[in-house]
From TrEMBL:
<dbReference type="Pfam" id="PF22725">
    <property type="entry name" value="GFO_IDH_MocA_C3"/>
</dbReference>
<dbReference type="GO" id="GO:0000166">
    <property type="term" value="F:nucleotide binding"/>
</dbReference>
<dbReference type="InterPro" id="IPR000683">
    <property type="entry name" value="Gfo/Idh/MocA-like_OxRdtase_N"/>
</dbReference>
<feature type="domain" description="GFO/IDH/MocA-like oxidoreductase">
    <location>
        <begin position="145"/>
        <end position="275"/>
    </location>
</feature>
<dbReference type="InterPro" id="IPR055170">
    <property type="entry name" value="GFO_IDH_MocA-like_dom"/>
</dbReference>
<protein>
    <submittedName>
        <fullName>Oxidoreductase domain protein</fullName>
    </submittedName>
</protein>
<dbReference type="Pfam" id="PF01408">
    <property type="entry name" value="GFO_IDH_MocA"/>
</dbReference>
<dbReference type="InterPro" id="IPR036291">
    <property type="entry name" value="NAD(P)-bd_dom_sf"/>
</dbReference>
<feature type="domain" description="Gfo/Idh/MocA-like oxidoreductase N-terminal">
    <location>
        <begin position="11"/>
        <end position="136"/>
    </location>
</feature>
<dbReference type="InterPro" id="IPR051317">
    <property type="entry name" value="Gfo/Idh/MocA_oxidoreduct"/>
</dbReference>
Length: 382
């Protein structure tokens, strides 16, 4: 557990993230977990009733609850340590750019934005302002995912040759008790330059492969489908991605795979050993060696990276999950913001990622889109 008493809580404001949003309460729970943030201001929703109700539940005073994000940024400029952007992805770029230009430290829910040109513009603003921008990819906050990275770094797998990663979900085929489709948020049913499926799930897959290997994607071939209940929206992808250093990644993610609430699975194959992790069993990592041995890594073994006291909100044997992974990431972001405030240098730790990785991810997703459209291999823009 983070020793929060030794680390000053940062005052943070939300833009978006109401009680009716898909991710708002998860972020709220995560920032409170270790006492590292105080939510003191927000514009949670354009709907006045939802905005006020969210403020009440989150404990934000009425005079610091704003009807629009522009008013929040104008009034809170000297009062906040950071702004957290939780609006729908297509709205991110305008808010992020405005906040950076006004001197805010910015945390943004993935995907940073919905197109390569918008990401390039944000990257330009970050450089021009020497600003702080962190994007939340919470799956690499799982202790076992961090253990996987250390296993690769220590060379236990030998040369990493293949990664198979899948993230199947069922939301676009699920029905309610009456047999009617369960309709997601309206903006998730519209595809732009890059399909919304890629922005929801593909950015996570790209970040996880980068997190584990630090290798860059070079070329991709992809196939996409519409298999769910909603027409004219891509809801399933299969892709093969060639990475640097002769690494191949096989990727499947979907919102039309019945039986999977969130079936995130990562398998990494080297020439000496392989390893496998499932989010549904978040506390265990299986490693299989060439001589037939198998090991199970968990938080109970002192020599393992996942055994760090910061990950032990309770003792091994009592699984930590999605919100705790978010909290681990927010602790890392807290560290980086304090460092930025002290030095003025946006020096990210190995756990926090900003605009550069977001831009690379969108370039990969754009290449996937072009590959599926034209039916051929496409090189990833550098």
């Amino acid at each position: 557990m983070i020793e929060s008493s030794k680390m000053p809580p940062l005052k943070i404001g939300f833009i978006g993230g109401s009680i009716n949003s898909a991710v708002g309460y998860a972020h709220f729970s995560a920032i409170r977990s270790d006492g590292l943030y105080d939510l003191v201001a927000g514009c949670f929703s354009r709907n006045a009733e939802t905005n006020q109700k969210s403020a009440q539940i989150y404990g934000v005073e009425t005079d610091r609850t704003y009807p629009d994000w522009q008013s929040l940024l104008a009034q809170e400029q000297t009062k906040l340590d950071a702004i957290l952007v939780l609006t729908p992805t297509p709205n991110h770029d305008e808010i992020v750019i405005s906040a950076l230009e006004q001197g805010y430290r910015v945390i943004c829910e993935k995907a940073l934005t919905d197109s390569v040109p918008k990401a390039q513009k944000i990257a330009d603003i970050v450089r021009q302002t020497s600003g702080f921008l962190a994007v939340t990819y919470n799956y690499s906050g799982y202790p076992i995912v961090r253990e996987m990275r250390e296993v690769i770094r220590e060379g236990k797998l030998g040369k990493v040759q293949q990664i198979q990663i899948e993230m199947p979900q069922e939301g676009f085929l699920r029905t309610n008790k009456s047999g009617q489709p369960m309709v997601p948020q309206e903006w998730r049913l519209k595809d732009g330059e890059i399909p919304t499926l890629h922005l929801d799930l593909g950015v996570h897959v790209h970040q996880l492969i980068h997190y584990l290997t630090r290798l860059k994607p070079e070329e991709v071939v992809a196939n996409v489908s519409n298999l769910g209940s909603f027409e004219n929206i891509i809801d399933d992808l299969n892709a093969i991605v060639k990475y640097e250093d002769e690494l191949t990644a096989n990727i499947w993610y979907s919102k039309s795979a019945l039986g999977h609430r969130n079936g995130l699975k990562i398998r990494v194959y080297g020439d000496q050993a392989s390893m496998e992790w499932l989010q549904a069993d978040p506390e265990h990592l299986q490693i299989s060696y060439a001589d037939g041995r198998r090991e199970i890594h968990d938080r109970a073994i002192e020599s393992h990276a996942c055994n760090s006291i910061r990950y032990s909100r309770f003792k091994p044997g009592h699984p930590a999950g999605y919100v705790e992974a978010f909290a681990n990431l927010y602790a890392d972001i807290h560290h980086d913001i304090l460092s930025y405030q002290e030095t003025g240098a946006s020096c990210m730790t190995n756990e926090v990622f900003g605009v550069d990785l977001s831009l690379e991810g969108l370039q990969l997703l754009d290449a996937m889109t072009q590959s599926a459209k034209h039916g051929r291999w496409v090189k990833v823009e550098k």
